[in-house]
């Protein structure tokens, strides 16, 4: 896959693929964005290295390191992994960029430097980072100048990085055309793009449970639709959509997308057999009055479709210490199920959030993952049998919390 992705991205001659995040970022024991990782050489070389090795073999032009420490050494200052393994053993000579402000994190998080200048010195003298990704201050530039003033023998080291950066710009033609592809912007969101995104969404959604074959629903079935994700495209997309932490509650920002509610109404012809009310927040909060209204709707419907899951997040702000969904979400759905309606849960989530014993109270569970703008249509089509769910889980989905230390992948 890494080989194919790199070759595909770079096939137009004006795009540099970036392999990320180098390396072992998916082994964080807590799933947090910044963590200390312990790994054997055997596991690193046999389980974590192969996709990067394939990317290098395909000619990947750039790479990004990450926020972790490996066996006690922050990656951004880890000579063994950044130089010996990547540059020497794999023979890669592409441009290496840090993850956001990671050199500064040698002082702020890893605590191996007292100042930003010292952090810059440590990184530049120990590893072959070429670019510091930080847009809000000039600490890296100041630290580099300070290093060269105090230790001019490192000028060759800085020039080596400058050569790699300039080489990449020349390869991409950036000196002749600083904004390549500008003329193609209007092609984004074409009919072909939309059709491809819809097909990907359809194929990625996973049916986890379907007791008594409650799915697919008949178009004239009595259905109550509820849940915070039922009418919110932003919650179908997650983080890094519109902005860093995602953007929920503003469907107008997603002109090419549609919600579950809109598509269910389209499939059923706005039938009076479908009702909608949501009194639930993705934090799990709801009022007694809203719960009473929701349970009244549920009691009158043969089926209740509850679209729940995570709010949008990315990186550190998305860290969690408990994989369970917010308790309020679980309780809200259980209260609906207690009315006798047959509950179908639809999840929109970036991680396998634990459902506990909720699955005992519901008839069906669909994991929509983060199918994004086309996710609402894809889920609605699956609910009503227009599309057969064919997705398979790419991850382990636990029923109960782990009883021992267990790696939770968040990326």
TrEMBL record:
Give the main EC class. hydrolase
Q: Which reaction does it catalyse?
A: Hydrolysis of terminal, non-reducing beta-D-glucosyl residues with release of beta-D-glucose
Record-annotated Glycoside hydrolase family 3 N-terminal domain positions:
1-168
EC number(s) from the headed UniProt entry: 3.2.1.21
Q: Which UniProt keywords apply?
A: Glycosidase, Hydrolase, Signal
A Gene Ontology molecular function term for this protein is: beta-glucosidase activity
InterPro entries per record: Cellulose_Degrad_GH3 (IPR051915), GH (IPR017853), Glyco_hydro_3_C (IPR002772), Glyco_hydro_3_C_sf (IPR036881), Glyco_hydro_3_N (IPR001764), Glyco_hydro_3_N_sf (IPR036962)
Q: Does the keyword Signal apply?
A: yes
Q: Does the keyword Disulfide bond apply?
A: no
GO BP, one annotated term: glucan catabolic process
Q: Where is the Glycoside hydrolase family 3 C-terminal domain?
A: 205-400
The family assignment reads: Belongs to the glycosyl hydrolase 3 family.
**What protein name applies here?**
beta-glucosidase
- Organism field: Phytophthora cactorum
């Amino acid at each position: 896959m890494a080989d194919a992705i790199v070759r595909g991205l770079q096939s137009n001659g004006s795009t540099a693929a970036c392999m990320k995040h180098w390396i072992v970022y998916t082994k964080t024991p807590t799933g947090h964005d910044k963590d200390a990782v312990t790994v054997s050489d055997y596991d690193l070389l046999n389980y974590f290295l192969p996709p990067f090795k394939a990317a290098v073999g395909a000619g990947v032009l750039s790479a990004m390191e990450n926020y972790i420490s490996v066996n006690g050494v922050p990656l951004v200052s880890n000579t063994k992994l950044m130089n010996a393994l990547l540059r020497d053993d794999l023979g890669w000579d592409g441009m290496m960029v840090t993850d956001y402000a990671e050199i500064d994190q040698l002082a702020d998080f890893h605590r191996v430097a007292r100042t930003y200048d010292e952090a810059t010195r440590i990184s530049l003298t120990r590893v072959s980072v070429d670019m510091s990704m930080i847009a809000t201050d000039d600490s890296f530039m100041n630290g580099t100048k300070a290093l060269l003033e105090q230790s001019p023998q490192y000028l060759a080291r800085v020039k080596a990085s400058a050569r790699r950066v300039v080489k990449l710009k020349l390869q991409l033609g950036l000196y002749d055309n600083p904004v390549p592809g500008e003329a193609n912007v209007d092609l984004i969101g074409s009919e072909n793009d939309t059709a491809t995104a819809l097909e990907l969404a359809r194929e990625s959604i996973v049916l986890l449970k379907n007791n008594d074959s409650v799915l697919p629903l008949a178009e004239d079935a009595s259905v109550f639709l509820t849940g915070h994700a039922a009418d919110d495209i932003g919650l179908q997309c997650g983080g890094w959509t519109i902005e860093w932490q995602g953007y929920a509650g503003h469907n107008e920002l997603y002109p090419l997308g549609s919600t579950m509610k809109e598509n269910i109404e389209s499939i059923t012809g706005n039938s009076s057999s479908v009702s909608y009310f949501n009194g639930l927040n993705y934090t799990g909060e709801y009022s007694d009055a809203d719960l009473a209204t929701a349970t009244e709707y549920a009691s009158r419907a043969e089926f209740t479709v509850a679209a729940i899951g995570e709010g949008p997040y990315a990186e550190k702000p998305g860290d969690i210490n408990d994989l369970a969904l917010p308790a309020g979400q679980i309780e809200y759905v259980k209260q609906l199920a207690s009315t006798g309606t047959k509950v179908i849960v639809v999840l929109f989530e970036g991680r396998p959030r634990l459902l506990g014993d909720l699955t005992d109270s519901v008839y069906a569970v669909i994991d929509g993952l983060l199918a994004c703008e086309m996710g609402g249509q894809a889920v609605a089509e699956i609910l009503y049998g227009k599309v057969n769910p064919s997705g398979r889980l790419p991850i382990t989905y636990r029923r109960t919390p782990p009883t021992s230390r267990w790696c939770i992948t968040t990326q």
